[in-house]
Amino acid sequence: MRAEMEALADFVEAYRAALTDDARAYHERVKRSDAVYHGEIVKHAYGAFYYDEDDKRAFEEAGRMLFRLGRAFYKRLEDPALRRAYGIGEFEWSCMKKRPVDDFLAPMARIDLFYESPEEYKVCEINTDGSSAMLEDAALAREFRKTRAYEAMGGTNADLVEAWAKKLADFATAHGAERIAVTDYLESGNPVEFTRIAEALMRHGKDVEILDAGDFTRKDGRLMGKNGPVDLVYRRLVTGEMLKSPDRAKALVESYLADEVILVGGFHSQTMHTKRFLADLYEHKDAYPADTHAWIDAHIPETVLVRPENRDALAARREAFVVKPVDDYGGEGVAFGRKLDDETFRKRLTGGMVAQTEVHAPTVPVWTYEEDWKKKDMHVMPGLFFYFETFSGVYTRADEVALIAREAYTLPHFYRRRKA
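^ thats the sequence. predicted structure below, dont judge the formating
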């Protein structure tokens, strides 16, 4: 990763005067593209995230280990006492324990890493509720391939939207599903993402409609959309949002639990999604197979659930920790202990939070062009996409600050084999 990205930065530094018009044109194309998050064009640099075969092997290993460990954690959650300790209520567990028609723990997962090298990386968090990030990456890559920087660097990009649609369509066909619904609480989602996925699925011969999760009904043992029966639902509805207002998605949830519809993104995936999983790996390593312990030690940062009995010990090490919600996204609710005074930090140590050792994503040079060229040392965090537990590509955020959240830059990903 580092060598390729430094080579790209060196190329821009050497030729940036001649690249100015190219950078302006790239910026203008992106503004007209689908690289949209919450209605806004994503921040973008004149750069990309490059990785090679060694990085790819490390990414694949991370996925294999985490899916294996996730299955082991699921077995542990069959213990009611552990579920109570982790605050998993009966309704949430009734959804989680329902096994989908396949045995994929998470049909779509994004694993965010603090990644320095194939040997040196830490897991930041895991998202199994789907992600509009695939749309951002695909759109930026499409435009970056037209730049002179790409001509110099080359590389291949897996279109994450098209790749997901192909995997999902193939899965649907294998299970006899022709009518597909893409669903979310639509005010929370990205309509451009839903449209692009629906269009891609239709190119694969599927009948698709986009529905709010509250628009489903049940009739004669079938889940019904606005246009008729639905065979398969691609759930973009975040589990945490569903749990806050379950009555709105009642027909969808009940139909799934009654085996009336295939749900891709079954609530089973919540097993790995929350930071309870990482905390359990760290705090209860001995409950997992012995041959996973070295990997856990190397790649899972200290992550502990905040409890009344450990608040004093955590507060005493304030500057070492970042406090995060157990189940949230986009950097919401994240606080760095070193930026808070003792009293404010202690107030953050409440139920529903984890404390995780502060780990900085590595920095690499990245060039931006807005009104002028700027070279910035940015923390870079790759998010590894796995489709049906197969490594499928990378979504990368970068920023000058350590908290890489919604306001960060997005870099398209490219795979480039090292020259012999």
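The two ends are 16 Å apart (CA to CA).
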